[in-house]
Amino acid sequence: MKQLLCTLTLLASVLASTSxxxxxMRCNDGIVSTGESTQGVLDKCGAPSSQVTDSPAIDENxxxxxxxxxxxxxxxxxxxxxxxxxxxxxxxxxxxxxxxD
Length: 101
What we know:
two-stranded antiparallel ribbon; 6 strands
């Protein structure tokens, strides 16, 4: 039973990592993928339809908490009914999600 649990855990982690690695989005001026900078995405895709920025956590003295990051959420809604949601950590693209409306 313990071996089965370990095998399932390993399989789940492999599947999760491979789906994140292959995430891409096609734009007018190229293809963006995880690892791209915010400026690279802007250059290839233009401005997003909407964007939200979550600032890093601040401690009681007004300093950024160690390990905290700025998180940006951008949404692109090109013609065709697919919505792309991009998530950046400290200006690096870490996740691309797509869904059909």
